[in-house]
Amino acid sequence: MNDPTGPIVWLASYPKSGNTWFRAILSAVKRGTELFTLDVLASGGQPFGLATSVDVLGLDPRWLTRSEAERLRYTLVSGATGDEPRFRKTHERYRTTPIEWPEAEGDPPPPFPVEATRAAVTIVRDPRAVAVSLAHHFGKSLEDSVDRMARDDTQRADPARLIGEQPWGSWSGHARAWHPAHLPFPAYRIRYEDMLERPIETLVPVLTGVGIEVDEATLVAALERVRIDRLQQDEAEQGFRETHARAQRFFRSGSADAWRTELPAHLIRAIEADHQDVMAELDYPLTSDAPTRRATLRARTSARRHRVIPWNRLPDHLALEVNEGAVPDTLDGARSVRPWLDVAPGRALVRLTGGTRVLVADGCRATVHIDADQRTSGDWAWPVQGWTVALAMLQRGHLVLHAAALERDGRAVCVAGATRAGKSTTAVGLLDRGFRLLVDDVAVMDPEGDGSTVLPYLRGVHLTRSAAERLGLDYDNLPALSAGRGKAVFLGDDPGGIPVPLGTVVVLRRSAAIGAVTSRWLTGTEKLAALRQQTDRDGAAAAILGQAPYFERLARLAASTPVLELTRPPRTWSLQEVVEGVMAAESQVLSSS
Amino acid sequence: MIAPADPGLATLDRSGEPWLGHAHGLGTVRVYADGRYDVEPAEGADARAAETLEHGWAELLGHIRLGRRIVGGTVMLAPDAADSLLVSGGMTEQSQACVLLAERGWRRVSDGFTPIDTTTPLRAYRRGGPWLVPRRLGLDSDLLDGRRIRPGATAQEVPTPPVPESVPLRARVLVSEHEATTGEPVPVLAEVSGRRRMGVQFQAFADRFVGGAADPARVMADDLAISSLPLSTLQWPALYLAPRDERLAAVDALVDWWRGLNP
Predict the structure, then answer these.
(1) For the domain A8-126+154-246, what is the CATH code?
(2) What is the 3-state secondary structure (H, E, C) of A203-221?
(3) Residue A168's pLDDT band (boundaries 50, 70, 90)?
(4) How much is the pLDDT for A87?
(5) How confident is the model at residue A247 (pLDDT cuts 50, 70, 90)?
(6) Do B35 and B156 lie in a common domain?
(7) Where are the alpha helices (DSSP H) in A308-388?
(8) What ipTM, to 2 d.p.?
(9) CB-based contact (8 Å) between B8 and chain A?
(10) Does residue B204 sit at the A interface (CB-CB below 8 Å)?
(11) Domain match, B196 and B105 both
(12) Integer Cα distance of A21 and A526 in angstroms
């Protein structure tokens, strides 16, 4: 291994963590307070930027391949010589190899070569304060900043814009990567908060350690010159080239505690859930307890999964293309099955509240119109994953059960029921008992042969606040369902697309009377009526399939499927009782078969 | 001299005559005091190695040897005028603005890094070879086909009609892009004056070590010369936030501002 004998001192930090303030202190120490100017901060330029290549070699790097650019970076970094420490700011996460390197090129050059390095100073700041500062700096919402800090993705280096590519990773990932114990050169880790509270004790050992001799008087004078109010004044008078286009100013407050008033409670919980381990290691006190953080983490894991799926994208195995576009108010030649539903041969039109309309044609394509004033927030996947799939599958000849479908041991259980019966809550409750969610709300059945199957597809579960809290999910950290529907979306694991044989249908009912959960098996016409209610509640099935084909399919489903009615009390009810009722029914069916 | 380094890419020896540059796997350049140069691709180098060495390296060094400064930015020549606009900013942002200008009939003189003569009036020199812009420019334009200039490179070339060897500069614009979704809207186009113009000017030159502009008087004179150009900033949202029409309108406003200046 090479020795760290070079002149470079990496000033490494996550963005908005005090790196610039540290550089200002350094400049004021090295240049003197009289010559200090905001636009000549120490180590402002990256050692591997586009301009640096022209600066040092006269070479325009845009012509280069990725691997040549990585070699160029090595040339520029390792070209630094001399005894004086040369500070290099970086927001990159520490790594030992390029993000992308062709095997045929042999050993890759290290991005942070040890032999060019003297030491590293890593600056960390409370992530709750970083989130607030990032939002102001980039003109982003606080939610966006908190999400950005949790993402561990890294961008690839791009020769055409080298300086723009600084893969940060997540706040925790960054802090771990630059942990002094993991680095192959001497490193000093300082907390921004300590620089504020105890600047002399914090900075003198670090500066001395990297080769900057400084006496206390000089440092005190430098600190006075770079007081936040004086930097703000400099920026107001002269501008600052590192101020982002939309930021009012670069130097905002510099406060360690402003997050307490600026961050909403659910985002504080989010940050603490995302970064709890590293925050604890760095002595940043957590305000939430462990169960709360677990609930938040579960919600945020779901939210991240949800975010990467476009609202109009359905799994490939559904073979259903959805586009946004113009949709008529009415369908020519159609029968109005309900005030909101028109059905014509091969076509169906749904008019939803708020002006959203969905036109489904030939079982394979759909067009969605969303009114401009309705689309500002929320999750617009629900009419696509719900109505669109249901109508398209009916057009293809399937039955659709208004139910959550779950699988265990290769058999599906469908939890059906009217709106607000508690289907989704029960479904998520069953997830904790070893079940796998196949789909929520729209169970596509294929009642062929001796038994039926359920077609799974990834779809969000819609939960009320109380349902989410009952299930140990942080409601405020789940994505909201669209336009004031008072529900949030929970997205579980992708169930894949292989049909699962149907075991039992459980019909949940809300009783008017307070009492315990009761259950009974349905038979004969009661069973048929219950299944009809759950497969044709809007009249869409009979209208699209035709009366005779619909009843033929319904009869086949009823003949092959046991149906249990579970009745629960109206308000406070025991999820555990319902879940145990479902599991008991499943056991009974299995033992009898 | 930059010390040879392995696994580094390039070395440049300026201690003798001619200047001698060597790039790992690409080849060698020799650049003479009168600005002439020759290039020698390495054995087995790809088909465009010679162009890479010439237009990506030797040509810039040739300008430097003639005493010209290299400024970060692209120079576009107006369709019905004899002078031009220097477009600075991030490589993506300046390229986006210049492609839109090209759609309006402007012609590229240089791109990315521009050789200029700082004696008044300022003149910008043509860059040989193709016009390079990032391959993922995020801009829908008939001028772009996304083909890489070399296998594994991330720049694409844009067709551009011929221009004179050098053109006078009338003004400069600094383009920046943001992904901001909150806060007060900022003016898309804003003229910059006074000390802020000097601030924006800082570090415009990209050849301090190679070009040897170490003479403080020369640096000051060059800075002042380029600061004398009228300067505007163009700030627009990231492309996925701002429709193409909005950007074209911003570029049209920029052209109006440029036309309003005295040639």
Answers:
(1) 3.40.50.300
(2) HHHHHHHCCCCCCHHHHHH
(3) confident
(4) 87
(5) low
(6) no
(7) 382-383
(8) 0.93
(9) yes
(10) no
(11) yes
(12) 74
